[in-house]
Every structure is written in C-alpha cells, then in structure tokens.
Amino acid sequence: MTGGHRIGVVAVQGNVSEHVAGIERAAAATDRDVEVVEIRESGVVPDCDALALPGGESTTISRLLHAEGIAEEIVASVAAGTPVLATCAGLIVASRDARDDRVDTLGVVDAAVDRNAFGRQVDSFEADLDVEGLDDPFHAVFIRAPVVDEVGPGVDVIATVEGRPVAIRDGPVVATSFHPELTADDRLHRLALFDPLRTGAEA
C-alpha cells in the first residue's frame, strides 16, 4: 500500500481493545502502514479512512454516539463511502431498525435487527461459517447475538446460521452478528476494512 491509512475504532463502550488488536494483526499480516485511533469524541471520524463499530451494549453505545456528536459524523462518512465493520451491538446501532425504541440507530445499514434473537435461547455459541469473500470457513463467536430479520434490496447477505442472516454488506458497511475480534482470525477485518482501502488506492 502506498502511504498510510488511519482506521478509527469507536471507543465509547464495548470491545475496543480487541478490535484494535484485530486491525493491527491484519495490518501486520498484509504489510500495511496503518494508524489505529480510538474515537471517544467528535472531530476524529472525518479524518479516518475506515471505521470499526464494536460490540458492547447497544443502548449505551447509541446514546453516547449521539451525545458526543459522533453519530452524525459516522453517517456522513458512510455516505462518502468510508469502509465500516460493525459487529454485534455495532450491527444493531448501524441498522435502520433495532426493533427497540431504546436504541437510536444510525440507519447506515438497510436492515431490521432482532437485538436479542440468539440471546433468548443461549448466551453464546460458536459456529464455522461460510462467508462470501473468504476462501475458508470463519470460526465465529456469538454472544447474546442479534440476528437480521429483514434486509433492503441493496443489501447482500454474506453469511447465515440455519438460514438466518448473521453477516451482511450494505455498500461500504460490513455488519456481523458475531464477534470476529474475539478470534485470532483477522480475515473479516481485512475483508471489511483493508480490501476496500486497497481497491481505493489502486483506483
């Protein structure tokens, strides 16, 4: 890659350090020059070339994003084509409908999400998933995971569990019900964040 890129991890709450580590692993594995920054206040997002929106507690994350003025910056960045990886609660917050009035969603992913779909049945489970864009199965960790109930016409479902969508792509945003940052496998970080940057650099 020519020159460096800045990747921001939204750090108001949730699995922040795990995403930072995942991005750094992906950078090392692909010999990329990447600066990873943690985002806790407004003014940082516009200077980022890609973003990660971690899992955590969706009501808390959405409230803090709006309170800190970060929410509108993320929406504007997605509209401008900035790559985003949103995981678990990040998927809920990114969606257009969380089916829960307590979550003030960003609406950058045209999907409706059942925020406790798997959590009501089991607290956590793991599964090997076939993910569109990856050559080999991805070992996914689900913790009280949401599931995608419906998607808009422009949304691609890139992984399912028992026929239910658990990873989707809407334009520059890849969103998952599971936690790729909780494994040593950095391929989803590469797929969502690094591959679009490489394509942009080559364009």
Total domains, how many? 1
How many β-strand runs? 12
Task: Name the poorly predicted regions.
Answer: none
Widest sheet, order of strands = 2-1-3-4-12-11-10
Describe the structure.
The chain is α/β, with parallel strands linked by helices and 203 residues long. Helix content is 27%, strand content 31%. The protein contains five helices and twelve strands. It has helices at residues 16-29, 58-67, 71-79, 89-94, 187-202, and strands at 5-10, 34-39, 50-53, 84-87, 95-97, 109-114, 124-129, 138-143, 147-151, 156-161, 164-170, 173-176. Strand 1 (5-10), helix 1 and strand 2 form a beta-alpha-beta unit. The protein is globular, with a radius of gyration of 15 Å. It starts with a strand and ends with a helix.
Structure at a glance:
By secondary structure, the chain is α/β, with parallel strands linked by helices. The protein is built from five helices and twelve strands.
Observed structural traits:
5 helices; 12 strands; seven-stranded mixed β-sheet; 203 residues; single chain; globular; Rossmann fold; alpha/beta
